[in-house]
Each structure stands twice: as structure tokens, then as C-alpha cells.
Design brief:
By secondary structure, this protein is mostly beta strands. The protein folds into 3 domains: about 5-70, no CATH class; about 80-130, no CATH class; about 130-305, no CATH class. It has helices at about 115-125, 185-190, 190-200, 235-245, and strands at about 10-15, 35-40, 50, 70, 80-85, 90-95, 100-105, 130, 140-145, 145-155, 160-165, 165-170, 210, 225, 255-260, 270-275, 280-285, 290, 295, 300-305. Strands 8-20-9-10-11-19 form a 6-stranded antiparallel beta sheet. A hairpin with a 4-residue loop joins strand 10 (about 145-155) and strand 11.
Length: about 300
């Protein structure tokens, strides 16, 4: 630094090596190398600088310093917070109050949880160079909040993704094929997966999706609804079938939001689902089928590819 750049009250970092050692009497100032100090006074005639932290040294007079031995300290409101949630450790980078990046490490169920190990892994992943969601192609598998998702499509609003594996079987609803008021829709908004995603991402990262609830036979009794987490419609499944796999051999059948028909045609309980071979069918809303959430996210968020979880 130059003397003109130094101001009283400014914090500066002492370089790791001496540029000007004129005032370093017998190495007595060496222990300040690499340390951060605060400017207390600048002599207007000699440009000698006094610091606050060493005021008790050199017989109570402190040391004289030269600006050439300083590096500026860039003050920022950034911080990294590492927390544990069950067997998962989460590292988040904050810029002020806004979380701008997050990474996690999950302990295998057969292992004993250790916070130090989880914190080191989560921190290492947080510091890794990451891609944005827009860098991934349809069909790629990515990780968000420690869950694996498949990229389906990019558009001008964001990126549509779907959970790679099925969540456990649940009823669509007890007595209605209308997604808007269904028990499954209400459950999705309170499930652990959605809560973890909201905790990892900033609120504006989740983009609202318009869900067309037109039935398989073309009836629009149920209209449309906006969701931040949802299921595929029949038309979307047909569109993304090849991305998801022609014969995926899923472990269970899984729900779509599309009704087979509607009350105006005398049917209020039948809902579409996809069987284990990838064939769309329909059945009663009170049946138990797997759940495969879809979300739309900002394409600019930082993301990482699927990797093998540590054991």
C-alpha cells in the first residue's frame, strides 16, 4: 500500500514478509507478520504510522510502521454457517442475510454420525467450483439438498427438474381426483424434501408452475392451479418420457396430477399414474402409489452433479 491510501482507523494486514524493515529492531516486530492491525496515527511530516494493537510494546511507545508493509483488508459481510440436522451436515455461505451457496454431507445410516467429519466434507463441497443449473442438459442428474433430481427442460423462466427416485406410496386423496384440494398436494408442501430444498435455496430460486388440470378426456372442471412443488401432468409425462427412460423399471407406480375424467362426466375419483414399466394408466384416488415431485428453479443457481454418497 501507499501512505496516501492509509487512513486512521483503517484495518490493514501486515505482509507475510518485510518490504521495508527499517523499523524492525532486532526482529522484535516479526510476530506481527500476517496479522491484522488498526491504524492509530499517521505522522504528516515523516509518514510514520502508529498502530493500536502494539501500543504496549517498545517500552509503551509502540512501533513505527511503513505503508509498504501493509495489505488492505477487504471487509465483507460474508460468513459460512455449518449446522447438523439428524445425520446430515449443511454448510451455507451467506452474503449478509442471503444464502448464496450451500452444500451438504450425509452420514450413511450404518455409520456413527461425527459432526467434525461431516463439517469438513460439507465445507469442502461448498468451496468446490460449481456449475449453474443452466450448464446441465436434459437427462443429467443433479443434487439439491442431498436429493438426486433429473433435469427435464430449460426455458426462459427456469429449469424443470424431477426427483430421480420415488418417494414412498401415498394416497392421492380420500375421495377426489382434483389436485388442487388433494391430500397429496397438501402433504408435498410439508414434506421433508420440500423443507430442505427451501432451507438450501433462496426464496426467489423456486419458480411458480402453472398446472393444467384438464382431464384425459378433455374436461376442464378443475381448471388450473399454481404450484412451487407438484407432480407431472399426463402431457408433461408424454413429453419427457424418453428423458425419464422408455422402460425405467421403477419400484412402484407413481402419480400424475391429471384426472382420468371429472364430475361433469360422472367420474370424480379416477387419477392417472405411471406403472413400473413406464405406461400411463388410471385408478382410484384412494390407492397408494409412489410420489415423484417436480420443481422449477432459477437456471442461475449453483448446483453439483450426482456423486456417490460417502459411507
Amino acid at each position: 500500500m501507499k501512505t496516501d491510501d492509509v487512513k486512521v482507523g483503517m484495518k490493514v494486514r501486515i505482509k507475510d514478509h518485510w518490504v521495508s524493515s527499517f523499523y524492525n529492531h532486532a526482529g522484535k516486530m516479526d510476530h506481527w507478520l500476517g496479522q491484522t492491525m488498526t491504524v492509530a496515527h499517521i505522522d504528516s511530516f515523516t509518514n510514520d504510522i502508529k498502530m493500536i494493537e502494539d501500543a504496549d510494546e517498545n517500552g509503551g511507545f509502540g512501533w513505527y510502521w511503513c505503508a509498504e508493509d501493509f495489505d488492505p483488508v477487504i471487509e465483507t459481510d460474508c460468513k459460512i454457517v455449518i449446522t447438523a440436522h439428524g445425520n446430515q451436515t449443511l454448510a451455507r455461505l451467506f452474503d449478509g442475510k442471503r444464502c448464496v451457496r450451500a452444500a451438504s454431507a450425509r452420514c450413511h445410516p450404518d455409520d456413527e454420525f461425527n459432526f467434525d467429519t461431516g463439517a469438513a466434507l460439507a465445507f469442502s463441497r461448498l468451496m468446490q467450483k460449481q456449475k449453474t443449473l443452466a450448464d446441465f442438459s436434459p437427462g443429467d442428474t443433479i443434487i439439491i439438498a442431498d436429493y438426486d433430481f433429473i433435469v427435464l427442460e430449460h426455458d426462459e423462466k427456469g429449469t424443470l427438474i424431477i426427483l430421480k427416485d420415488l418417494m414412498p406410496a401415498r394416497k392421492f386423496d380420500f375421495d377426489s381426483s382434483n389436485w388442487t384440494g388433494s391430500g397429496l398436494r397438501e402433504w408435498l408442501y410439508h414434506c421433508d424434501l420440500y423443507q430442505k430444498i427451501k432451507n438450501e435455496l433462496t426464496p426467489d430460486s423456486l419458480i411458480s408452475m402453472r398446472r393444467d388440470l384438464t382431464s384425459m378426456d378433455g374436461l376442464s372442471d378443475y381448471g388450473a392451479v399454481d404450484d412451487h412443488i407438484s407432480l407431472l401432468t399426463f402431457d408433461e409425462y408424454r413429453k419427457y418420457h424418453t428423458i425419464l427412460g422408455l422402460k425405467p423399471n421403477n419400484s412402484d407406480w407413481w402419480w400424475l396430477v391429471t384426472p382420468a375424467s371429472t364430475p361433469s362426466n360422472g367420474y370424480s375419483r379416477r387419477v392417472c399414474f405411471v406403472d413400473e414399466c413406464g405406461i400411463p394408466l388410471y385408478g382410484d384416488c384412494s390407492s397408494g402409489h409412489g410420489v415423484r415431485p417436480v420443481l422449477k428453479l432459477k437456471s442461475s443457481i449453483l448446483i453439483k452433479k450426482e456423486e456417490q454418497h460417502e459411507s
